[in-house]
Structure formats: C-alpha cells, structure tokens
C-alpha cells in the first residue's frame, strides 16, 4: 500500500497487545496502531508498552463496557458510565504534548447502540438477550471468578426501542451517553490544556446527574415496551376464494352428509385472527403466548388441508337427529418463554421452532432440528413442545431437553447432554430416555418410533488442518427380545425366518475425518449401526450444501466422502455415498406369513437405510462468500448480483424397501402399506439462482427435475420437473411456481403416488412495511393469488365419467378412455394486517 501511495496513512487493528513483538518487527511501515481493548476502567500499561516497543500512535478501535450486571441481572447504567469515563480520561491524558506516553490519538467507544443480534447471530433478533458469553475480571462490578460476566448485546451507550414496519427504531440514551457528551466538551489540544485541567474536567462529570438525565429516556423506553407487554401481536388474515373446474368430483353445491373436501365450487370467504400477549416482569424473564381465533372457515379451497380447517362444522348423531356443531374456534397458536437465571438459561417452546445439537457434539443426531415451516400449521401439529435448560457456573457443561414432543413425532422424552474439553479433546455424552409411546400423529412425515433408550459418546480432536470425530452409540435396549422377520433366498426360493433383537444389536459406531485447506477441503466418514442402534439424520453442513448425507438410521453400514475445490468464485464439489442394511428388506411378494416389516409392528425397518450407491456433484458460483449460499436464511442474507448453485444426484438402488406408514382419510388412523416400490436407479438435478440489486430489488429461483418413487407401495416412477420464482421490487412481492407431473402439496399425495400433470401458482402482493424474502412471513399487505391444476387418472378428484360400483353407487371412473384432462382452479384475494412480531 505504501508503494502505491506513500502519502496515505495505513492502520491495522489488533486484539489488545497480542503479538506486539511480531507486529513491531514485521510491520514497520504501519502509521497508526489500532487496538481493541477491554481491560475495565484502566488500560494499565498499554500506552507505555506501545511507546517503548513499537513507537506508533494508538487509536482505540474498540473499548467500553456493557450495561448489564450479570450478578443482579439488572441494567447497570452507572457502572457502564464510570468505566467509559475512566477510559476516556486515560485516552486524553496520553495525548501528544501532555507529558505522559503522548501516543494517544483518540478512540471509538463500543458501541453507540445495543447489538441485539450478537447472542444468536441469526436467531432471536427481536429479543434483547441477557446471556453473558465471556469472562473479564477487569469489570469488577459483576465479576465472579470462573463465571461469564460480559453481555455482548448490552454494550450500547444507547438502548434500542421497538422496531417499526420498515425496520427502523428509536434510540434511548443511557447515563454513559450524557457523561461522554460532557467529557467530549474538552479539547485536549487546546491552548492551556494540561494533565491537571483534564483531570479537573473529568472530576467534574457527575455520573449521578447523567443517570438522572437517562432515567427519563429509560422511562420513555419502558413506556414503549409496555405497549408490547400487553399485546405482542395482532394479525388479521381476511381472504376470499373463488373456485371452479371441470371433470372433477367437487360438486357445484354441497352434498348433505358428505365429508369430502372441497365441499363445493364457487365463492366463499374466511377470517383468521392471531392475538399475542407478552409478559416481561424482569429483564431476565420473558414469556409470550399467541392465540388463533376463527371467523368463517371456507370449505371450497382446492388445497383442502390447512390450519383453520379444524373449525369446520361437525355433524353429530343425537337422539333427536343429526346436529351440526362447531369447535376449536379458539386455540393456542404458539407459546414460548425464556428465563436467564444465574445458574441456567431456560427456553420453553410450544410450536415455536428450535435448533438441533449437531454442532454441539450430537454426533448421532439424537436431538433433531424442529423448524417445520408451514407444515406444522397445515397438519395442526403441536411440536416442538417442551423446554431446554443450559447450565451455567458449575453446571455450564450440562444441557437438558424435556417435553411431551420435542420434535414432530417424538415420544415424550428427556435428553441430557454433557460436554467438556480434556486437553485437546472435545468430549460429549448424551443420554436419551423415552418416557412413553406417542399415540396418534398428524402426518406420515412424523410417525413415532418405538419407545427407546439411547446413550452416545462423541470425541473431537483437531490436528492443524485435520479434524477427527469419532463416537459410539448404544440404543434400543427396550426392544431387546422383540421378534422380527428376515428374508433369504435359498435355491431361488424365498424363505422367511424369525429372529429376535439381541444385546449386540444395540451398538453402533461412527468416524469422520476432515481436512480444511481453504481452496481444497475433504471429508470422509463411515458408520456401522446395529439393528436397533437408531440415531437421527445428519443436519450439519460439511463445507457445502451436499444432499447425500448420513441418514443416521440403525441397521446399516455406510461410507461417505467428498471434496470441494475453489477456482476463484467457483466451487466444484463431488460427493459419494455407499450404504447397505445389515438385514435387507422383505419384498411385498413374499408368501404369507412373511410380510414387509413396518415400524408399527417391528423393531426396525429398511427405509432411509435402503441399499444404495450414489454420487453427486455440486457447482457453486458465489462472489460474496460473506453471505454464504447454503445458510438457512440465505434467501434473506445473500447479497450477490448473481449467485448460482447447480447439483446433480444419481442413486443406484438395487433393492426394494420395507413398508411405509400411511394415514387414513380420517387424518389420525395409521396403517402399513402392503409393500414398497421396487429396485430402480433414480436421478435428480437441482439449481438455485439468486440475483439481488440492493435490499429491495431481486429475483430468487429454485429449479428441479428428475425421477422419483412414492413413499407407499405404488411402483410407478414419476418424472417430475418444476421451478419456483420469487421477485421483489420495492414494496411489491411476486411469488410463483410451475410443477410438471409432480405430487401435490400434501404427504398423502406422495404416499399414494398421486400426481398432477400441471400445477401453477402466482401470487402478487403489495406490502405496507419492509418486504421479506421468506415467504408467508407476517407483514401487512394486500394480495391476489391464483392456482391452477390439471388432473389425470393419477390425480385425486379426477372424474371424467362415472360407473356403478358393486354396492350400486355411482363412483368416478378415472381410467375411462377418450376424455381430456380435468382441471381445477382457485382465485384468492387476501388482506393481511400484521402488527407486532
């Protein structure tokens, strides 16, 4: 830099005085030495050491104090102001010409306003967390040896007020603001300024008076927040539906006694209201509860399963005849609470998402993520339901999760995790105990597993650029002694034997090796899992967004390996998977009493652990790696003018599977399919394109295509293709998709292999506040949505003509020859009024 422009000053920023000797030797041309320093009220020997060892002017690039007392769990305005004033006194005293070190040129108080993002980084952005994340003995007002006392979200000399619809907020000065305002009235370079006048000026700053000035601002802030204590959310979703179609079973008018939906074609309206209440009696406790209140519930939407359909009228037979009743008009939508105690942090949740422990030593995926997007509403699920407790002080190595349904389909359970570092080894142990067997479920996506007990141990060790993870699992002990069938072919004759679960079937192990080299990265991992050593799917990301991952299932051996290589802004990433079950599946063609296994009646099944050899290659172009293409919220954060990912996956599947579980039309009764799709090689291609031009302009497209098989027993392979496109222009939002020969939106469509030749959707809306890239986020807006589907003999509700069945009833005949495809369409108008979170 000096060679290009000798006249421009060059500065560096260093963490305190670390490596000062190396900096002095290697960086003689640096003009200004910037330092981030957090030593409490005094910088101690910092100015003298830099003068003696480096002889460069000092710029304090970060310094200051948080405004929260980790002992009393209260705001600490006075302590913050005292430390900031003491720091600035030393900065002034060491300015040039005043007789001390004479190398101070000023600094930046950290920070002007609180940083609500610091604890969770990408989560809890609307919560002012009180978590203390590191220890510093220089801040004596709340320091206890061995305990964290630095609250990263509380360093502002101004507090933040509530955020408005456009993302703006008002700031409320603390005592430190007023004290520093007075401190900076002094010019250290003015004629007549001496050490004595500086000390006299700072001695005259009245912290008590500054606190009194800030009390008015604090009262105003509390007044702002008090409005959200009573009402944290108000949302009104007012919509209308106009529907039509041809060659379909949906009637023009409702049929008395029919329980099929949609009940009719035509026009209907619906109203759904959400009201939330928040309580925060102290700074370290917060609770929120939201309710859904139904108005009219439409019975004609072509997507017949949705959150509000619980309020449909139900006909009940009574002694005086049939009676129509309505229920569930008021229902708790979601709830949460947080308690930040000196001994623990507790987070409770009911239908509010939470994250997995995969990056915290949960090597076998015992505690999966529970963020389900709109699906948890569509099927009226209650997960996740429970709480987590993270210990502090002497309990800081422990973490507990407990609840009736910690993830969708989970049995009532608790999990206890213990983590600690021993030398260079990071060791984690987890104990999981199911307390009971979950009964009914809402979706085939979340079929409960047999009641189990599990223990895992994980060890991590880094060797420079290499990493080693290995661990063991013991699981399924309550299943010991349960019988199961095994399939063999003897002289080309199928034979089924009966065996039982033994203690050795509870054990499993896994190892993973990584090399992180920047431009070139590599990993390899392998696992051997006993018949009932059931873990969970790997939800962590290794280097990039690969789709071939460890399923975590028991009853398998597997091996995976992949590399990433960077060429400028391009990344090439091939990946490989081999897996095989220890005991293979039982075909649906096996003679009785043999049958395909299913998880309702058997201790294990072959499903995600199906034998396969698979490969994928993933290409990524991402010129802005600071907003990573594969982050969960990349739709929001990706800021590239153009970023693209393109992947291809091929799977060789030489066997069938055991039976999946389906749900009958009543929405609750489960059953096992009679078999599973046959052996078949499958492929798929997927792409994602992001193009942003500022925060209010851009396009995101997700494109896919390939072959796929049903979850149930139907053997038809579908060739499906589609694309989803979202566009944002200022306050206008456009969402759309096209799907060709694909399943419909619900789990039963894939279970029963029900497809539509064509599905189209377009949604245009205008928002009052700041638009959001994530779809269906609460935001006041008005919009119009149109849906269109074509139906053929593989589609539900297709009825080109009718025939008389064995009972004498007229029923649709979807296999009739000579008829065109049917169709159904819907035009929806909506007004969404959203106030609060």
Write the SSE topology.
Blueprint: E1 11-15, H1 20-26, E2 32-36, H2 46-53, E3 58-63, E4 68-69, E5 74-75, H3 77-93, E6 104-109, E7 158-163, E8 169-173, H4 175-183, H5 195-203, H6 207-230, E9 233-246, E10 266-282, E11 285-294, E12 314-318, E13 321-325, E14 330-340, E15 344-350, H7 375-378, E16 385-391, E17 398-405, E18 413-422, E19 425-434, E20 453-463, E21 466-475, E22 483-490, E23 493-500, E24 507-516, E25 520-529, E26 556-567, E27 570-580, E28 612-621, H8 634-637, E29 643-652, E30 661-663, E31 670-672, E32 682-692, E33 697-708, E34 718-729, E35 732-743, H9 747-751, E36 755-767, E37 781-791, E38 802-804, E39 810-812, E40 822-836
Parallel strand pairs: 1-2, 2-3, 3-6
Antiparallel strand pairs: 4-5, 7-8, 9-10, 9-40, 10-11, 11-14, 12-13, 14-15, 15-16, 16-17, 17-18, 18-19, 19-20, 20-21, 21-24, 22-23, 24-25, 25-26, 26-27, 27-28, 28-29, 29-32, 30-31, 32-33, 33-34, 34-35, 35-36, 36-37, 37-40, 38-39
Helix pairs in contact: 3-4, 3-5, 3-6, 4-6
Concise description?
This protein is mainly beta and 837 residues long.
Structural account:
The protein is 10% helix and 41% strand. By secondary structure, the protein is mainly beta. It has a domain at 11-229. It has a 24-stranded antiparallel beta barrel. Helix 3 (77-93) packs antiparallel against helix 5. The longest helix has 24 residues, at 207-230. The chain is globular and about 110 Å long.
